[in-house]
Write a structure and sequence with these properties.
Blueprint (H helix, E strand, L loop, with lengths): L4 H21 L15 E3 L11 H7 L13 H12 L19 E7 L8 E6 L4 E7 L3 H7 L4 H5 L2 E7 L2 H7 L2 H23 L2 E3 L7 H8 L4 E10 L1
Antiparallel strand pairs: 1-4, 2-3, 2-5, 3-4, 5-7, 6-7
Length: 234
């Protein structure tokens, strides 16, 4: 049977168009799961878009704080911190912190121990629904403290926010350069947490010294933890 070159040509053109479209939308497609959730979902209070402290004052007052009062955080405060870290800020799904190519390589985990209205446990933040996905019950702050080389502010904080990176989301698009972009993004998210905590009258500190594998094991994730942010009342 003779080849239909015209038909083959149109097929090739169609295939190229489809593949190109997939590459363009890939950063916006659902990501692989950062942890095994139990299926329980906790809706968070809606974040506020105006506060009592202007950004210039938050920048002026921002400090690393390691001493926290043994008082609980409000669920509204945790909600605001998570929104500042990775909350959705536009109709097309853009988030509070910039991300190269909108690849969003981070999952935000919460190790909660002393938050009003929230059972102690490990949770994962869902930016699209502004909710917490329940991972496992129990107060794991002491375990996280030991994994963080016995830095007691990790265990004394009301809650620990852990930034977990999935490098493949960035390297699939940018190759090895994507590793650098992931590290840049960690800084963007971290500063947002710092400034939001300051604006709320809370204290936090960026913790980078810990046993990566042990922290991943505690969280139940295959990602690479890059930052722990203990947060407490000061």
């Amino acid at each position: 049977m003779p080849w239909n070159y015209r038909g083959i040509g149109w097929f090739v053109v169609f295939t190229v168009i489809v593949l190109s479209s997939l590459l363009l939308v890939k950063p916006y497609l659902p990501r692989e799961s950062g942890g095994t959730a139990s299926g329980e979902e906790i809706a968070l209070p809606k974040p506020r878009f105006k506060g009592e402290m202007i950004v210039e004052e938050a920048i002026l007052r921002r400090r690393s704080m390691r001493d926290y009062l043994p008082e609980p955080l409000k669920l509204e405060e945790l909600s605001q911190l998570l929104w500042a870290a990775q909350g959705i800020t536009s109709p097309d799904g853009k988030r509070a912190a910039p991300s190269a190519g909108a690849t969003y390589p981070f999952e935000v985990f919460v190790v909660a121990g002393n938050v009003e209205g929230l059972e102690p446990g490990i949770y994962k933040y869902n930016p699209q629904r502004h909710s917490l996905m329940f991972i496992k019950r129990g107060d794991y702050r002491d375990d996280l403290e030991r994994a963080a080389l016995d830095q007691d502010w990790v265990g004394n904080a009301a809650v620990d926010i852990v930034l977990v990176a999935f490098y493949g989301r960035a390297t699939e698009v940018y190759g090895e350069r994507g590793v650098r972009y992931v590290h840049m993004e960690a800084g963007h998210i971290g500063e947002n947490i710092y400034l939001q905590a300051t604006a709320l009258g809370l204290g936090t500190v960026a913790v980078g010294a810990f046993d990566d594998e042990r922290v991943s094991e505690i969280l139940g994730t295959e990602g690479r933890p890059l930052y722990i942010f203990p947060v407490g009342r000061v």
